[in-house]
Amino acid sequence: MEEQVETLGKAFVDHYYHLFDADRSSLSSLYQPSSMLTFEGQKFVGANDISAKLRALPFDHCKHAISTIDSQAAAATGGIVVFVSGSLQLLGEEHPLRFSQMFHLLPTIHGTFFVQNDIFRLNYG
Amino acid sequence: MEEQVETLGKAFVDHYYHLFDADRSSLSSLYQPSSMLTFEGQKFVGANDISAKLRALPFDHCKHAISTIDSQAAAATGGIVVFVSGSLQLLGEEHPLRFSQMFHLLPTIHGTFFVQNDIFRLNYG
Questions:
Q1: How much is the ipTM here?
Q2: pLDDT of the residue at A18
Q3: Model confidence at B85, in pLDDT bands (50, 70, 90)?
Q4: CB count in 10 Å sphere of residue B54
Q5: Chain centroid to CA A81
């Protein structure tokens, strides 16, 4: 069970940041109307608003590099919590930005997962 | 509702790090047998093992300073997810350590919350 949770968490993280770096408008498929994003303290609710925020980020090309992924089963919901740390390289910028992000994933009726909770913070040294 | 979630999250964070800095053996009261802690990639399950890990950390005195607290309602459980960033000053060390930590809190039958999921990571620049 615990091993499966780690595997699911890692698969989600790989998928999420691959979409983010390749075509971040496609991330909207991972959110639902109940989903919440807090991005550097700003709150967004629902796949539409979250997707609009992600599309509006002030850069076109970026590349995430993941440092750590920690996953746990979230009791009572069949969900998973995933905690990620890594860095974000923006095209044309010299230094990557360090970030931390957490996801609370819930199962869909199709046996996949969607993002119920998403909290993103840049790490300031 | 959202304001209440922020207030609950902040109250929990204040309480948690106050206990941590004042008498971290008392943190065991915030965990239950189902609780999970991942501390720098090491996994612990249940209040007893989690409490033992926290007591065994290789420092006696520390002081947390919180930089950001982001809280969201966690669907379907009546719970809350809380994401914290801050720094940890160890007695006798010159530089504080930056960290990020997430909690998934679930309600108890007494109307309070316990920690179901806890993931802690130091931030490396």
A1: 0.94
A2: 97
A3: very high
A4: 19
A5: 11
Note down the domain range covering B63: 2-122
Cβ contact B89:B17 at 8 Å: no
Tell if the CB–CB gap between B38 and A117 is shorter than 8 Å.
Answer: no
Structurally, chain B folds into a number of domains equal to: 1
Distance CA A100, CA A85 (A): 4
- The CATH number covering residue B79 comes to 3.10.450.50
- Residues 6+ away with beta carbon under 8 Å from A28: A47, A48, A50, A51, A54
Q: Is A106–B43 a contact, with Cβ atoms under 8 angstroms apart?
A: no
Burial B70-88 (b: 16+ CB within 10 A, else e): bbbbbbebebbbbbbbbeb
Report the residue from B38, B43, B104 with minimal CB separation from A74.
B104
Q: Do A100 and B85 touch (CB under 8 A)?
A: yes
Q: What is the pLDDT of residues A36-59, one digit of tens each?
A: 999 999 999 999 999 999 999 988
Residue B31, Cα to own-chain centre: how many angstroms?
10
Kindly report the average pLDDT of chain B as a whole number: 93
Find how far residue A31's CA is from the centre of its chain.
10
pTM value is 0.95
Instruction: Give alpha helix (H) positions in chain A.
Output: 2-23, 47-55
